[in-house]
Specification:
Elements lengths: L8 H10 L5 H13 L17 E2 L5 E5 L7 H4 L7 H12 L20 E5 L12 H17 L5 E5 L1 H10 L15 E3 L5 E5 L4 H4 L6 H15 L5
Parallel strand pairs: 2-3, 2-4, 4-6
Antiparallel strand pairs: 1-3, 5-6
Helix pairs in contact: 1-5, 4-8
Amino acid sequence: MAGAGRETPLAGVAERITSCRACPRLVAWREQVARERRAAFATQQYWGRPVPGFGDSRAWLAVLGLAPAAHGANRTGRMFTGDRSGDFLYAALWRAGFASRPASVARDDGLELRGCFVTAAVRCAPPENRPTLDERDRCLPFTAEELALLGRLRVLVCLGAFAWDAALRLYDVRERPRPRFAHAGELALKGGPTMLGCYHPSQQNTFTGRLTEAMLDAVLERARVVAGVPAR
C-alpha cells in the first residue's frame, strides 16, 4: 500500500527524476551540500540527487511541497524526511491516519503512507530554499506525471504559496483574478482535484505559531470531508 514497487509506473517516473540534471545551478548546489555535509551528519552518505515523490499509489490525497531541504530530503532521499518541517508534517499525517508511524527519519525506516502521496514542485534542494520560476517549470512535468498516475486523487494540499502557484500552473488554471493562496483556502479544479491551501510547516511558521498542529490537523480533516472519505 505504501509506495511504488519497481514494476510500477510511479517507479518509472521516480527513476527519471533521480537521474535528472536539467538545472545546472540546482545540480551544483545539491552536490556541493552532499560533499561538504553538515557537521551533525558528517558520517552519513547524502542522497545528493533529485527526490521523487513518496507514498501510496492508490492515494486520494496528495501533499505538495516546495522543494527538498538541503540537509533533509537531499540527505535522506525521501520527501520531507530528516528535517523539522518533515517532523511536523509526518506527525500530522500519522495523527490523521495517513501514516503508519509518527516520524520519517530515513528511506528504509519502514514508514508507509495510506491513501496519501507526498511530493514537491521542485526536486532538487535549491540555494537559500529559493528555486527560480524557470527551475520550477522545468521540474513540474515530473509532478504532473506523478499526480496523473494517482487515479484516485481527489484532494491536493498545497504547502505554501509557491506550491499553490505551482499547482495552478500544473492544472492550467487561467481564472482572473488568479486564485490566491490562503491558509485553509479551497479551489475545486474542473476535471481535477480540489486544492486546499496550508501554511508550509517550516520552522519559521511552526516556531512562531503561524501554523499549529491543530491548524494542520484541520486542513487534513477538511481534505477528508471534501473527498467524502471517512476518518479511520
